[in-house]
């Protein structure tokens, strides 16, 4: 595991330990880091966010992280790239653990493994509230689910 992978694992652990699990929590964290309101994170914004989580990296290391996660070559990280970077990599969890974690995102506090229509609607109403327009929400879901 190289330094970028190590940083990603630390960032994922820090986000989860602070309750930033699921799309909603990570999107909130992302927006908080986006100081200039550009809807993307530059290296400086990412560095401040990582430092806030106790991950002190020099600018060269942060730029390495940005390059690894920046899929469109823009030099910044948009929300989709940020979420993709923090998702669980294949092979870390069993299929059952992945399913349970997935369902837990939608499930109420009871976490019974059953997702009701009301729980699903509640989850997605929260997600859509964190996105400015319907078009942006549709684009995010289309990209995330590769539809």
Protein model, in words:
It holds the Pfam family EF-hand_7. Keywords: Calcium, Metal-binding, Repeat. This is Calcyphosine. GO terms for molecular function: calcium ion binding. This protein folds into 2 domains: about 1-85, Recoverin, domain 1 (Orthogonal Bundle), CATH 1.10.238; about 95-145, Recoverin, domain 1 (Orthogonal Bundle), CATH 1.10.238.10. The model has no long low-confidence stretch (mean pLDDT about 75). The chain is globular. It has helices at about 5-15, 20-35, 45-50, 60-70, 80-85, 95-105, 115-130, 135-145; strands at about 40, 75-80. It is mostly helical and about 150 residues long. It contains 8 helices and 2 strands. Strands 1-2 form a two-stranded antiparallel ribbon.
